[in-house]
């Protein structure tokens, strides 16, 4: 079964939290797919990942560019796994595909957005009842992750 993590953003934005999580995933040797809820959001994250920090570089592309299968990080709005990723991030209310083919899936949701919180609760119930190993993490005041369930 896939290990599924729910990350409840309470102190930082997605743009602040996602790059570090992507760096750790790449550091493990994993390929990554990030599924967004819209093309506009995908494109905003695409631009952000090129410029989020002066001393870092996250090689990535979007699913509308050539050679998606070769990308270590692929940003998409679709449900495919074109780059044979081991981990899938679902952000901004993206609807998950079948997650059983991944080692890990991460739902990142904004705690200040009631719609995203409700969607995360529904996904928690669905993934837990499907037998996946599910954990819930919430940010502390110092922006660290604390396991709550």
From the structure above, extract its key features.
149 residues; alpha/beta; Rossmann fold; 8-stranded mixed beta sheet; 3 helices
Question: Briefly, what is this?
Answer:
The protein is of the alpha/beta class. It has one domain: Rossmann fold (3-Layer(aba) Sandwich), CATH 3.40.50.10110.
Describe this protein's structure.
With 149 residues, this protein is of the alpha/beta class. It is 29% helix and 26% strand. The protein has three helices and eight strands, in the order E-H-E-H-E-E-E-E-H-E-E. It has an eight-stranded mixed beta sheet, with helices on both faces. The protein is globular.
Instruction: Tell the overall outline.
Output: globular
Strand order of the largest sheet: 3-4-2-5-6-1-7-8
Task: Report the order of strands and helices.
Answer: EHEHEEEEHEE
| Number of helices, counting only DSSP H or I runs of 4 residues or more | 3
The CATH homologous superfamily corresponds to DNA polymerase III subunit chi
| Count of domain modules | 1
Name the structural class: alpha/beta
Radius of gyration in whole Å, from Cα?
A: 14 Å
Tell me, rounded to a whole number, the average pLDDT: 95
Q: Strand share of the residues?
A: 25-35%
CATH architecture: 3-Layer(aba) Sandwich
Q: Name the quaternary structure.
A: single chain
| Count of extended strands | 8
CATH topology name, in short, is Rossmann fold
CATH class: Alpha Beta
Poorly predicted segments: none
Helix share, percent: 25-40%
Give the termini separation. Answer: 18 Å
Main sheet attributes: strand count, strand direction, barrel closure: 8 strands, mixed
């Amino acid at each position: 079964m896939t290990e599924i993590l729910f990350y409840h953003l309470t102190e930082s934005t997605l743009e602040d939290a996602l790059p570090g999580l992507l760096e750790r995933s790449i550091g493990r040797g994993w390929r990554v797919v990030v599924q967004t809820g819209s093309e506009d959001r995908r494109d905003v994250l695409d631009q952000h990942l090129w410029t989020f920090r002066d001393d870092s570089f996250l090689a990535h592309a979007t699913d509308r560019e050539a050679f998606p299968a070769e990308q270590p990080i692929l940003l998409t709005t679709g449900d495919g796994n074109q780059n044979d990723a081991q981990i899938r991030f679902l952000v901004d209310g993206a609807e998950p595909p079948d997650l059983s083919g991944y080692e890990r899936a991460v739902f990142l949701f904004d705690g200040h957005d009631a719609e995203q919180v409700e969607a995360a609760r529904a996904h928690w119930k669905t993934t837990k009842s499907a037998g996946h190993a599910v954990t819930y993490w919430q940010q502390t005041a110092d922006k660290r992750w604390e396991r709550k369930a």
